[in-house]
């Protein structure tokens, strides 16, 4: 397939965007350098709406920006049903999870696990998060670049270094406040980019949006009877909803990059507003991102044509580069990179907060007195960022993505079980560290088995959460008394009770 030139005007727009992100980091450098409260929590000064945008941009990667329209183009909107789970999850977060994170004044989510269970559970949760997100940075850089460069003459190594490198720099300088305000800009950009694709694609199709709607109905592009066929688990709506529900629960309860935002607002009331802002944006994503795929299906059915043997993972960038006017195309491609950068920046800042808070401050504070926590956090950002960037370049050069996918699959298997650990700690009184450690091991073993025998990631997520919760709870009944901790103020039934944090 002949590659398309990116164009001078598109380059200008993309460079302006990247320099603007760098400017945000520079602007917040002085404020973020004061202490870890500023670097990791922004001194709880972020407006609720901005925190909500940041949560949204963090959870939406460039991979989602391109894979969701591809899903709608090839099949239908069935996976959009999973996004509706946020309506159920937000009230649960507000009532049962956020109060504990706010009450304990945690910097990382895993501090709750220590108070509720033991230091070893905190270490396990934090280490698994760090390991997975170090690997995820590489993939988040690699996948959108490989998709865009399959249809354009952009140099993949150059764009990886520029997009990834500048992201590392502004995260290094601006701390979480710089990351959040970058997320806000990036959130508007990626939503605007998606809307432009829908509008330009729809109006460019012969017959306009009338044709798009007719094609969507005639070809069952919204929902179809196949979506309730239990024989095809990849499209079975109840499983899609359940799997996405448990994946989302992990993101919002056990994943530091999102939980970190809960402490950046002034009060729990403001945190609650930020979560509802994020929920609203997540719901907008359904018609926008799935709509892109439906519009492009109708466009290429009636008006344009795709090259032979076209890789549909590059569907959106191909349409943008070949059909969207110069300048606007650069803006939309910037939106794709914005989605990537928001995820990368959040991961890097969250990794540094885990390393400094859960390891350095908790276990080695007396040994590492010669280096400030903010300086150490910035060193961690540089090291992990460069490692992720280096890995992405290696993947671009060596096409070794299958090996890296295996790494992410293995480390990713540990994510949802950790959400089960948070849930069993909050919703039961019986759970203790003995039961949780053994339960986590059993859950991971079952999850690995299910993952090897089933192709559906949604089944894996569902099994991972449920088995983690049940194993941890049941095994806790057999724990020696020494593993039973004080839980007053740390469970759903005692959420309003005062908890005095133990000194370590």
Automatic annotation (TrEMBL):
Top-level taxonomic group: Bacteria
Membrane topology reported for the UniProt record: Multi-pass membrane protein
Chief location bin: membrane
InterPro entries registered for this protein in UniProt: Na/Glc_symporter_sf, Na/solute_symporter, Sodium:Solute_Symporter_SSF
GO biological process: sodium ion transport
Ranges that cross the membrane: 6-28, 48-65, 77-98, 119-148, 154-172, 184-203, 275-300, 320-340, 376-397, 403-427, 434-452, 458-479
Location of this chain's protein in the cell: Cell membrane
GO cellular component terms, semicolon-separated: plasma membrane
Keyword Hydrolase: no
Signal peptide: none
Single GO molecular function: symporter activity
Entry keyword set: Cell membrane, Ion transport, Membrane, Sodium, Sodium transport, Transmembrane, Transmembrane helix, Transport
Keyword Transmembrane helix applies: yes
Family: Belongs to the sodium:solute symporter (SSF) (TC 2.A.21) family.
NCBIfam families (alphabetical): sss
Protein name: Na+/proline symporter
